Amino acid sequence: MTLTLQNLLPAAPEMFLLTMITLLLVIDVSLPERYRALTYQMAQATLVGVAVLVLMFYPEQQVLRFHDTFVNDALAAVLKLAIVLVTFFVFAYSKPYLQDRNLFKGEYFILGLMAVLGMLVLVSAHSLLTVYLGLELLSLSLYAMVGLHRESITASEAAMKYFVLGALASGMLLYGMSLFYGATGTLDLAEIARYLAGGTGSDGMIVQEFAGTRPVLILGLVFILVGIAFKLGAAPFHMWVPDVYHGAPTAVTLFIGSAPKIAAFAMLMRLLVDGLAGLDSDWTQILVILAIASMAIGNIIAIAQDNLKRMLAYSTIAHSGFLFLGIIAGTQAGFAASMFYVIVYALMAAGGFGMIIVLSRTGVEADRLDDFKGLNERSPWYAFLMLILMLSMAGVPPFLGFWAKWSVLREVVNADMIWLAVVAVCFAIIGLFYYLRVVRMMYFDAPLNQARIQAPAGMRVMISTNALAILALGVYPSALMAVCIAVMQ
Amino acid sequence: MIEQLFFYGFSAILIFAGVMVITARNSVHAALFLVLAFCTSAALWLLLEAEFLAMTLVLVYVGAVMVLFLFVVMMLDVNIAPLREGFIRYLPVGILVTTLIAVELAMTVGARRFGLDIMPAPVRQGPEYSNTETLGLALYTDYLYPFEIAAVILLVAMVAAIVLTMRRRQGVKHQKPEQQVTVRREDRVKLVKM
Known about the structure:
The complex is a heterodimer of chains A (489) and B (194).
Chain A: H1 5-8, H2 12-29, H3 37-56, E1 63-65, E2 70-72, H4 74-100, H5 106-123, H6 128-146, H7 153-184, H8 189-197, H9 214-232, H10 240-247, H11 250-257, H12 259-275, H13 280-302, H14 308-329, H15 332-359, H16 375-378, H17 380-394, H18 400-414, H19 418-444, H20 457-475, H21 478-488
Antiparallel strand pairs in A: 1-2
Helix pairs in contact in A: 2-3, 2-5, 3-4, 3-5, 4-5, 4-11, 4-12, 4-15, 4-20, 5-6, 5-12, 6-7, 6-12, 7-9, 7-10, 8-12, 9-13, 10-11, 10-14, 11-15, 12-15, 13-14, 13-19, 14-15, 14-18, 14-19, 15-17, 15-18, 15-20, 15-21, 17-19, 17-20, 18-19, 18-20
Chain B: H1 2-23, H2 27-47, H3 51-76, H4 80-84, H5 87-108, H6 111-114, H7 131-140, H8 144-165, H9 177-180, H10 185-188
Helix pairs in contact in B: 1-2, 2-3
């Protein structure tokens, strides 16, 4: 492949994003403090630009570039759009929070954009090397963002924990990848898939039966799954999730809890479905255990939390368990259901953490459950928005979260694993308790204080749009679902 | 034959150095053993005719990273005693996990699956063969995209390091070069009639 502009165009969103990041770095340094909002506006404009470029170069079919290390297909394009959209909301919610806490620096947005770049790379990865580098780009930006609030001891502790455990998980993932490279002799995901299918290699030679290297591959698979489970926050690799979510500034928690989940799903799809489909009987079993453990630990321990950020952290763990269900089903419809789930979850998480920011004021972090007591008396509208978000996360019809749960469960039943669906439903019912507790506190308890909710107008519009979109999409879920199904074919 | 001898010699030193890094009582000694580990790995790479990688390992890791590391270790003056308190307590779990992983690896990554009959030794190249040139060509063609991403990761590290460490404290005396170079004689020197 020659490096002409025409050939590079499928990667235009990534190139544009990187150009803008470097430009923003230079502009932000020379910007006087009072014009800081310009960095924010340019970051948002960059996200819009990336979305436009993704749509402009929406691929008709799979396009491989850069010596097959980069892939652009419908899955990549749709997930990129979802990531950019969720990040747009996240940045908008973060602005008032950061301004109140003297954290409104250009670095939040620049590191955020770098994390987005990492996610885009991960989503478009077609080689073990690109998967790893995209993941590192994403994770490194997130570690730094968690530690952004330097005066806060909890934030520094969270950053340290996240960094050390994250580095360990990256090491595991990398070791698994090295075993795969050793056994198959290639980093290319399609080549690995061909090797596992026993077909012909790129040089036309018949690949030998892989039974001999099978134990090596299984060991590598275990290491890779540990890495993925850690990044997704699935039990039993979930230890960092509550501490990091709790310790990080809410604006950063909001970011970590939403868009990177979509990227983690993409990593799961690229590695397991694109690359290791030949080992599906092995990874399905491991995923079943991860899914059940995540749903159990997430839903049960969440009940004992009195801090909303910690509760939502455990809810994330539970949701990652549900996310696995569609992939366990192992069909195209199952993958589509999981994709639907992760996009829906990212929207709900953005809204949920956004509500904490709405209620927070200068010097007050409204992240305890008590802060939501009597919200209906203080502001019926925000109580209603929170009601939508909580019921949707719990999976109550007709909200969007219900359709997400319903679609993965349907695929599990279609795959003849009714027992797994029953287990999942049981844990979902347990989970209903703690979501409904928040609703009860908002509507039936007396408020602890009557402080006015002082969210700027832009924030009000965004959070209302977010919650109402969940309501509206819940009424008409077929449009988004149709996109997910079309992508998987 | 002589090459194998060198290989086993360097490997033995490497393993010894690796063990000493985590067991040495003095953290400066641990850092120095890490230097030894890097040097012996570089020697192993030389045996594989990967001269460029060997040199980079010595220059970058031994020359730059580890020297910086030693500075940090000496400046921080870490009290090692509290860090070692849990050592005996966690030892059984540690040994169990290590043994498990070692057995798993021995079962999978052995001569049976990666022996010379399955993975033949690389062909020995002549003296005119440039390892550096081949590596450079591969980096800038086949691996251009990963190479660029790696560069961005370094940029992130730079931004992150500055964000996490730079602070403007009040009352600290800075040099201001831009003002210093534009200073005029009248600003500093005053002629006083005595």
